[in-house]
Specification:
Length: 227
């Protein structure tokens, strides 16, 4: 089995407003295999978003190694990380982060790095159809329900043909019924293209639908039990 994500001795601290710094993450080992679906459950403030930002190369660690698809992320330049992210990583945000001035289709196209070719157009339309929004391609985000907006965001995350999808509490801001659909669509579209998933959540019921559930508290040695 090929390893898609390998984290080793990853440490991240943040400076405190009152001076000094607080260690948020100290993760000796976290591995996700190619095509594997992993839910990582953790309390609020536990470092879930920070971990995903590190893996996406949006933040840099103090120490440690992050290998994705065999590439050491911490050795890349900022520009190199941006390029790598575009080609390898899909990201689904808690609050969707769609651009309001653009249609659903245009938002999905923005998830693609190169060109405005016919193949890209076809893939964007195909992805919208797969998330059940083929007839909403020309709607703007405000003309869509929140559940539909998150489905557009899933299509956008898949647009660049990622090898791993990072999802940050993707169901936290949608109603319970849409949450089921959102979760199903993430798992289905990723399974179809053998994309690995690392989803973080504080919701045990959401997490337990995944084939593998890890506890952030157990893999993170920076956890403060007193918090
Ligand atoms: N840019 C930052 N500067 C200082 N502290 C931060 C920053 N980002 C996050 N933190 C702190 O790191 C901890 C973990 O935050 P976060 O990763 O957002 O947790 P979660 O997503 O699990 O709720 C929190 O205590 C938060 O206050
Ligand atoms: Mg968070």
């Amino acid at each position: 089995m090929k390893v898609m994500l390998q984290i080793t001795n990853l440490v991240k601290s943040f400076p405190q407003p009152e001076g000094g710094s607080i260690k948020v993450l100290d993760v000796p080992n976290l591995q996700v295999n190619e095509g594997e679906h992993v839910a990582l459950i953790g309390q609020s403030g536990g470092g879930k978003t920070t971990l995903l930002h590190l893996i996406a190369g949006l933040l840099t660690p103090d120490e440690g190694s992050i290998q994705i698809n065999g590439i050491e992320l911490t050795k890349l330049s900022e520009q190199g990380r941006d390029r790598f992210r575009a080609g390898t990583i899909g990201y689904v945000f808690q609050t969707f982060n769609l651009l309001p001035a653009f249609t659903a289709l245009e938002n999905v196209r923005l998830g693609m790095t190169f060109g405005s070719g016919v193949a890209e157009s076809e893939r964007a339309i195909d992805l919208l159809e797969r998330v059940g929004l083929g007839d909403r391609a020309h709607y703007r985000p405000r003309q869509l329900s929140v559940g539909q907006q998150q489905r557009v965001a899933i299509a956008r995350a898949m647009a660049g043909k990622p090898r791993i999808l990072l999802a940050d509490e993707p169901t936290a801001n949608v109603d319970p019924k849409s949450a089921e659909t959102v979760l199903e669509l993430i798992r289905e579209t990723c399974a179809e293209e053998k994309v690995a998933i690392l989803m973080v959540t504080h919701d045990l019921q959401i997490a337990s639908q995944f084939e593998r559930v890890d506890q952030l508290d157990e893999i993170n040695q920076a956890v403060e039990r007193s918090r």
